[in-house]
Amino acid sequence: MSAELAYAGAAELARRVRAREVSAVELTDAFLARIDAHDGALGAYLAVDHEGARNRALIVDAMIAAGQDPGPLAGVPVGVKDVIVTEGLVTTAASRILDGWVPPYDATAVARLRAAGAIVLGKLNCDEFAMGSSNERSGYRPCQNPWDLGRVPGGSSGGSAAAVAAGLAAATLGTDTGGSIRQPAAFCGVVGLKPTYGRVSRWGAIAFASSLDQIGPLAGSVEDCALLLEVIAGADPRDATSIDQPAPSLRPALTAGVAGLKVGLPREYFEGALDPEVAAAVRAAGDALVTAGAELREVTLPHTRFALPAYYVVAPAEAASNLARYDGVRFGHRGGGRELAEMYATTRAEGFGPEVKRRIMIGTYALRAGHYEAYYRKAQQVRALIKRDFDQAFEEVDVLLTPTTPTAAFARGEKAAPLDMYLADVFTLACNLAGIPGLAVPVGATASGLPIGAQLLGRALDEVTLVRAGAELERAFGTRRPPAYEGAA
Ligand code: GLN
Questions:
Q1: Using a 6 Å cutoff on CB, does residue 134 contact ligand 1?
Q2: Using a 6 Å cutoff on CB, does residue 316 contact ligand 1?
Q3: Active site includes 81?
Q4: pLDDT band at 369, cuts 50/70/90?
Q5: List of residues 6+ apart from 377 with CB closer than 8 A
């Protein structure tokens, strides 16, 4: 397949399938061939569903032949992060503790993708239970950055970002608890959208920290992220925290421009350990918005420095509660028929990796009788202050522009100390604590050619403004692709 098809994008591929310029089977086979050719070295996928994908594609083609419309993602090959369950397709959250588990149902977001005509190619690599920022904490294998195989793709949705960047999926789903969509999107030079908390149903997303987790799209363009969110968003009776609002109409905002838009630069996001090349790129992004008619203002979010400590109490506390269900009995293994006791022992031996254990220890400690007031409750109070900072800023401006990450993609093994790794998300965590939406968009590269991502943060339920501003940045900075994957499969 020509790389042109691999990078044509979801909206354009659906258009071609519906216009019968290409069949869903041809597209699916072509993407599967690219995965077979490239993914051995890259590590974006944990499971590839050759047969299932082909069967779905046949159905889409049959619908088209019968004059039916398969939907806005007709025949579009997508990948799904392995913390999101898929019926009949192995789902492990990149953890040995779920090795071989085949879910009996689809997550709501996956069901909605399929109902819109999308073809699920397989399950994407990530950090175990979405805990990490580099994909090095996968229980199976690391995923590399397609721009430089010696560097990490970011995490936890590293596979979701790398697959899009390498043209091994037209678009993907990730999850974002503290930055796991936006940070890998920035490291891999793709677009990543973390929706408002509750915008997308979490039914079928394996829980990490339930008050922070959110499913969202990664893709090669703002348009494709908007299209995917339109498909997966909306109330779901199976998730009590899903917001009772219809899916937003986002694509009209792509061409709305930014004339008159008030853009805030939060002072606290340009201080401290911010790489000068990243700072310069984000300031240039601000200038581009001004050139296009926006107004730029400095704003302050005074509690920003408390976001990281608050997150690392709230997230582990909720994780410790959520992960108690993996006692080795309820979620089974391949090769059934083994004695339960033996299965239990095996599960424990091959169980949680060190980062997951660390989170469970911290979370359990924070929730212990006598500690709750000092830690979890205090963290929730800080969380309220962080949210108030955003509320006040959004009285002055419509959207915030910040760096997504303090640096471009770092080298494998570079952040061995847990706190160093946690700091990779210092600019993305507050968004989850406040429940607001965030969009990472490529805004150029470092002198050594690594992608840099800007982050746009918006009011709750105002993804439209993120799409408006994000599309403007895309027009200003264009899209780049990692050269090694530009050729035919
Ligand atoms: N890197 C952060 C963590 O390890 C965020 C992860 C995420 O968003 N899932 O918790």
A1: no
A2: no
A3: yes
A4: confident
A5: none
Q: Where are the domains of the chain?
A: 3-310+380-486
Q: Which is the CATH superfamily of the domain at 3-310+380-486? A: Amidase signature (AS) domain (3.90.1300.10)
- Reported confidence tier of residue 146, pLDDT bands at 50, 70, 90: very high
The Cα 308–Cα 300 span in angstroms is 17
Question: How far does the centroid of ligand 1 lie from the alpha carbon of residue 255, in Å?
Answer: 33
Active-site residue flag, 138: no
Q: For every residue of the chain, which 3-state class applies, written as one string?
A: CCHHHHCCCHHHHHHHHHCCCCCHHHHHHHHHHHHHHHHHHHCCEEEECHHHHHHHHHHHHHHHHCCCCCCCCCCCEEEEECCECECCECCCCCCHHHCCCCCCCCCHHHHHHHHCCCEEEEEECCCHHHCCCCCCCCCCCCCCECCECCECCCCCCHHHHHHHHCCCCCEEEEECCCCCCHHHHHHHCCEEEECCCCCECCCCECCCCCCCCCEEEEECCHHHHHHHHHHHECCCCCCCCCCCCCCCCCHHHHHCCCCCCEEEEEHHHHCCCCCHHHHHHHHHHHHHHHHCCCEEEEECCCCHHHHHHHHHHHHHHHHHHHHCCCCCCCCCCCCCCCCHHHHHHHHHHCCCCHHHHHHHHHHHHHHCCCCCHHHHHHHHHHHHHHHHHHHHHHHHCCEEEEECCCCCCCECCCCCCHHHHHHHHCCCHHHHHHCCCEEEEEEEECCCCCEEEEEEEECCCCHHHHHHHHHHHHHHHCCCCCHHHCCCC
The fraction of the chain above a pLDDT of 90, given in percent, is 91
Tell me how far apart the alpha carbons of residues 94 and 128 are, in angstroms, rounded to a whole number: 5
Sign of the Cα pseudo-torsion (372, 375, 378, 383, in order): negative
* Active site annotation includes 133: no
Residue with tokens 């588990």: 101
| Nearest-5° Cα angle at 180, 393 to 3 | 115
Task: Report the alpha-carbon distance of residue 230 to residue 222 in Å, rounded.
Answer: 12
Pocket lining: 178 vs ligand 1, CB cutoff 6 Å: yes
The structure's pTM equals 0.96
Nearest-angstrom CA–CA distance, 286 and 292:
10
Q: Give the largest Cα separation in the chain, rounded.
A: 68
Contact between 157 and 44 (Cβ < 8 Å): no
Mean pLDDT of the chain: 94
Distance 40 CA to ligand 1 centre (A): 25
Of 180, 201, 221, 242, the catalytic one is 180
Per-residue confidence (pLDDT) for residue 419, from 0 to 100:
92
Q: Is 132 in the pocket of ligand 1 (CB under 6 A)?
A: yes
What pLDDT score was predicted for residue 12?
A: 98
User: What's the CA gap between 279 and 171, in Å, rounded?
Assistant: 28
